[in-house]
Amino acid sequence: MREQLGESQAMALCDALGREPSTSVRLNPWKPAPLKWEGRQIAWSEYGFSLAERPQFTLDTDFHAGLYYVQEASSQFAGYIVESVMGGKEACRGMRVLDVCAAPGGKSTHYAALVGPEGLVVANEINHARADVLADNARKWGLGNIVVSCNDSSRLSALEQMFDVVAVDAPCSGEGMFRKSEDASEQWSEANVALCAERQWEILQNVFQTLAPGGVLIYSTCTFNRREDEDVVERLCESFGDELMAAPPVRIDESWGVVKAQVGVFQTFRFFPHKVNGEGMFMAVACKGGERRQTRLPKAKRKVISAVDKRDEAELRRWLKDGEDKAFFVAGKMLYAARKEHYPLIDYLSSTLSIIYSGVAMGQIFKGVLKPDGALAFYIDLSREALPCVEVTEDVALQFLRRADISVEGFTEGLNLVVCRGQALGFVKRIGARMNNLYPQSLRILKREN
């Protein structure tokens, strides 16, 4: 590391690693709300802010409503790269993005916000427990445009030329996370660096063909060493040189402290904690040569999802603002909704990959009436005319989020939507003097107040 930085820079970095890490959030532009804490905007992120102090996010109802994501500042630069290379926000709308090694979901939700509800993000995570966390964050984000898959990267290669953007946030030795995680420093070794470099290369080889001609390839790690960063990029240039071309320049202001360089056709960006108000990270971007063209989906190999019948469709449609624009389907026992233009791809992906979540989970129908899934409460297209909405205090909201008992006072008999400061949190069902708390078990608050 000293050879890469020089003696004075290395000492400055060591000093920075000894200080407390900063805390940053990124607001959800599809659930507009002002920043509620003291903070300053991150230079490269329109909706990103570095906070003066770290709040108790777990006890903030807006966090649980999906109004923001706690995402490290350096990590938010990936969204800036996509927006810059594609030519602005409007050009990003409707794109397809493959986010590889996606858990817990910071970049996936960022891409989802960029492409908008009409775009689609396929977020893949090989570890099932981490994929479950990713799915929960996709639910709370509430756009209904994230497909969460749990597969080895080798299975993704079947999705040939389907994506406008392929982003690989590769597993790495984690040197950039040393000051945030004791585990990162304790687990570091030269052998692990070598292992990570080979794994990174394997993933890139597997997913490169999923990128459409003219599409954008982003490679990132949270480590400093060249072997996992520039060396991997050089290997990409050597192996796929004929198919790669330079991306449009990504503008960097000197005051940002981001170190920009060039490796072959790739623009590279290094983030050092002594230069930026963020953690250590490396990113690289290039484009795939050729003209974009419409590709036809291959025929599904097996049928995993199916359309719901007309009677159930009518019940589901009444729960949504734009029900006529949605396709409704069933997977297992759960009913889902997605934009009609997304359904063919979701159908194909479900037949090809192990999909654990897609669109928005709506729930199950019993005797013609929907019992809503908790994810539906977070969805931006939920119609609040479908059921009574009850505004509750912060204290009551936190009790609800803990799946604790709450008073029936103020709630109508039957299903109700729990709302705090105008933001939907979930559903309850009043049965006389008793209340059934329907908040998802996987999302409940375990932490108690200090």
Folded structure, characterized:
The protein has 3 domains: 2-288, Rossmann fold; 297-378, Nuclear Transport Factor 2, Chain: A (Roll), CATH 3.10.450.720; 387-450, Nuclear Transport Factor 2, Chain: A. Helices cover 28% and strands 26% of the residues. The protein contains 15 helices and 23 strands. Strands 5, 6, 7, 8, 9, 10, 11, 12, 13 and 17 form a 10-stranded mixed beta sheet that branches. Strand 20 (389-391), helix 15 (394-401) and strand 21 form a beta-alpha-beta unit. The longest helix has 18 residues, at 190-207. The chain is globular and about 70 Å long. The model is unreliable at 7-13 (pLDDT under 50).
Tell me briefly what this model is.
Helix content is 28%, strand content 26%. The protein is α+β, with helices and mostly antiparallel strands.
Largest sheet: 10 strands, mixed
CATH superfamily assignment of the largest domain? Vaccinia Virus protein VP39
What separation lies between the terminal Cα atoms? 41 Å
User: Low-confidence spans: pLDDT under 50, at least 5 residues?
Assistant: 7-13
Q: What Rg is obtained from the alpha carbons, in whole angstroms?
A: 23 Å
The backbone outline, from C-alpha atoms, is: globular
- Number of domain units: 3
Predict the CATH topology of the largest domain: Rossmann fold
Count of individual beta strands: 23
Coarse structural class? alpha+beta
CATH class of the largest domain: Alpha Beta
| CATH arch. level architecture of the largest domain | 3-Layer(aba) Sandwich
As a percent range, the share of strand residues is 25-35%
